[in-house]
Design brief:
With 301 residues, the protein is α+β, with helices and mostly antiparallel strands. Helix content is 29%, strand content 21%. It folds into 2 domains: 144 residues, Alpha-Beta Barrel (N-terminal domain of MutM-like DNA repair proteins); 137 residues, Helicase, Ruva Protein, domain 3 (Orthogonal Bundle). The relative contact order is 0.13.
C-alpha cells in the first residue's frame, strides 16, 4: 500500500509533469472507483492543473476549470493502486471494468510540443477487490477520509507531547493498530508501522498507553523512519517508488530473512487479510508471537 513517503514523492514527481498542463478529458474505466457526481467528472475538460499535494495517503491534484472554478481531484490509492505516467496518446478503452485501469487523464499538447498530445496519467489498481477511490470536490475536506484524518506525523506541530496524548487516549489498544489508525495519525500503514516498531524495539502488541521513556523512543523512531523514507524517495520517479520502498524495508516483507540488527530470523503474523513482520530478539524478548492463522490450524512454530 502506498504510504506517506511514497505519496509525497508521487505528488512531487507529478508536479513536474502536470502543473500548467491542460486536461483534455478524464475517462473513468472502473465506475465504482468514482465516489462523487457533483461536480461531474466532465468538469475537468479544459481544466488547468495548478498543483499537486498529499493528505495522509491521499493524492490531491488541484485544478482550475475552464470557467475559473477551483476543484480538487482526490485519489486514494488503497492497497494496490498506483499512478502511471503515459508518454503517448493512449489506445481507446475497450470497455469499463476490464483489467487494472481505473481512470485515465489525457492531456492537451504541451507548449512547444510538436506532437499531437495525449500524454497523461493512468490510475490503476492491481487487485481483485477494488478499493481505490476517486473524488472530485470543491475542497479536499469534503472527502470524509480526509476530514477525519489525524495530524501529519512529520509536521512541526506533531510534538512528542501531542503524540503522548494520542497514545494515552488509545489506552490498552495495541500500538500496531494505533499507528495505522488514520483518525489518530495520518499516513502510516502496515509497512512503516512495522519499521517504526522494529526501530523502537517494541512489540506490535504493546499497549498504546506506555511510560514516558517508551513514548520518547517510539516518537524518535517514528520521526526517524518516516523522515528517512521521505528523503530517500525525493527525486525518485513514480515508476521506481515501489521498488525503492521495498529496498528500504528492514523487517517488513522480509519474513525468514536475518534481522539487520541482531541476525535473528524475521517472523510474521497473519491476520484477517493482512500480515506484519517483526524480529523476536529485538522486539519481543526472543519470544515468537502466535500466528493466528497457524494457531487455528494447529500448527506449531
Amino acid at each position: 500500500m502506498p504510504e506517506l513517503p511514497e505519496v509525497e514523492a508521487l505528488a512531487a514527481d507529478l508536479a513536474e509533469r502536470l502543473v500548467g498542463r491542460t486536461i483534455r478529458r478524464v475517462q473513468i474505466a472502473e465506475v465504482a472507483a468514482l465516489k462523487t457526481y457533483d461536480p461531474p467528472i466532465d468538469a475537468l475538460e479544459g481544466a488547468v492543473v495548478t498543483g499537486t499535494g498529499r493528505r495522509g495517503k491521499h493524492l490531491v491534484l488541484d485544478v482550475t476549470t475552464a470557467d475559473g472554478n477551483p476543484l480538487h481531484l482526490v485519489i486514494h490509492l488503497a492497497r494496490s493502486g498506483w499512478v502511471r505516467w503515459r508518454d503517448a496518446a493512449p489506445a481507446p478503452l475497450k470497455g469499463r471494468g476490464r483489467g487494472p485501469l481505473a481512470a485515465r487523464i489525457v492531456l492537451e499538447r504541451a507548449e512547444g510540443d510538436e506532437g499531437i498530445g495525449g500524454d497523461g496519467v493512468d490510475v490503476t489498481e492491481q487487485a481483485t477487490q477494488k478499493r481505490l477511490a476517486i473524488h472530485l470536490v470543491a475542497h479536499p475536506d469534503q472527502v470524509m477520509t480526509i476530514a477525519t484524518l489525524g495530524p501529519e506525523p512529520l509536521d512541526d506541530g506533531f510534538t512528542e507531547e501531542r503524540f503522548a496524548r494520542i497514545l494515552q487516549q488509545a489506552g490498552r489498544a495495541q500500538i500496531k493498530g494505533v499507528l495505522r489508525d488514520q483518525r489518530r495519525i495520518a499516513g502510516i500503514g502496515n509497512a512503516y508501522s512495522d519499521e517504526i516498531l522494529h526501530a523502537a524495539r517494541m512489540s506490535p502488541f504493546h499497549p498504546a498507553s506506555m511510560p514516558a521513556e517508551e513514548v520518547h523512543e517510539l516518537y524518535e523512531a517514528l520521526r526517524r523512519i518516516l523522515g528517512g523514507a521521505v528523503e530517500r524517495a525525493k527525486g525518485v520517479k513514480a515508476s521506481s517508488l515501489k521498488a525503492e520502498k521495498r529496498q528500504g524495508m528492514r523487517v517488513h516483507g522480509r519474513n525468514g530473512e536475518p534481522c539487520p540488527v541482531c541476525g535473528d530470523a524475521v517472523r510474521q503474523v497473519i491476520y484477517a487479510d493482512s500480515t506484519f513482520q517483526y524480529c523476536p530478539t529485538c522486539q519481543t524478548g526472543g519470544k515468537p508471537l502466535a500466528d493466528r492463522v497457524l494457531s487455528r490450524l494447529g500448527v506449531r512454530r
